[in-house]
Amino acid sequence: MNQLHSFCCLSPLTFMTPLAERIRPQTLDELAGQQHLAGKGSILRKAIELGHIPSMILWGPPGTGKTTIANIIANSLKVPFFTLSAISAGVKDVREVIEQAKTTPMGAGASCILFIDEIHRFNKGQQDALLGAVEKGIITLIGATTENPSFEVNSALLSRCQVYILKALEEKDLLQLLQTATRKDEILKKKKIELKETAALINISGGDARKLLNLLEIVAEASGNNVVITDDTVMDIAQKKIALYDKSGEQHYDIISAFIKSIRGSDPNAAVYWLARMIEGGEDVKFIARRLVILASEDIGNANPTALVMANATFDAVHKIGYPESSLILSQCVIYLASSAKSNAATVAIGNAMNAVRQHGDLSVPLHIRNAPTKLMKNLGYGKNYEYSHSYENNFSPQEYLPGELAGTKFYDPGQNAREDELRKFLKTLWKNKYNY
Fold it and tell me: In the predicted model, is pLDDT for residue 107 greater than 60?
């Protein structure tokens, strides 16, 4: 069970460990930022000092110290510490932790700590599996999330937890991290590192301490033993060696654009690659699924009507399942949509029709297809001479349905694909040359 660990202190230093892990703070005094939680007299510090903490949700942007705080709590309280990642763990893993916690000898007033990273990715069943153990004090839950827990965590579980909000790290906090890393890290301090310029490091990291330290390490490794860090150097190395993905920034829009265009271009290989980039970047699974539902009509439409059914089923499924299993469902749908025949005829049709509405305004509905629920309306000719389609051969009557000013206007032009060719032939059989199909 490779995602489950139990320990009371941090792992020993190894040369394969990332910089962010090597210099991870072990006390609240070493924590960058979050003084409202970790500072002298703060509520969380008091709880740790008293040796009794509540179950909690740590909510904040990536790289602001959520995992670090969980480790500090475990180190300070000297209690068994279990970790699970919501990306890879399931209900079975949760239950195994609970069973292990039940058999772990505990001191007075203490309980095992279970830290769940990205708890917002746990589905309802996984979250429900935690409830009993949290209620009975078998485990103290520490969940970390970048999403609003009011929306992403079950209300029953949320009501049993304190929510602590972490703030994005400020520039002074990030500068302190850089200086600490170059001064204290066993590997970096062997190099001669000059932080000549730091704007690029800080801007690319976006307030994420982990990303900042990873980038510093990449730049240092690529620059030999005498390292002069400038903004140009950082940008050059960053563009070559790291994949940036910011859910709220330009990269987000670039990647979703590449994703959509790859599906539209019938390239399942590229589409799955960009899907993987979004998944690895922590993109909201519902955002991806919504885009697929839109694309199924916008770019496939009646060339393959089943595409919309597939996309809608995918949205429902991933909403229920969550990560990590929803990655499989998304992959299946993306491959299907990318491999489908394409048509934007429905998209063009509604665009043409809306342009006509804007151009001609509110044209009158032809009398014969108006509703006539009252005697007065009937006397005014509402519904008069309407031909009920099912009363005619092939369930069709060639009467006019558009306002007189638009009679004969073609908004929908079937696409050049097998299924819409059938629609074209069918419509031409019915309407002859009226719409020039």
Answer: no
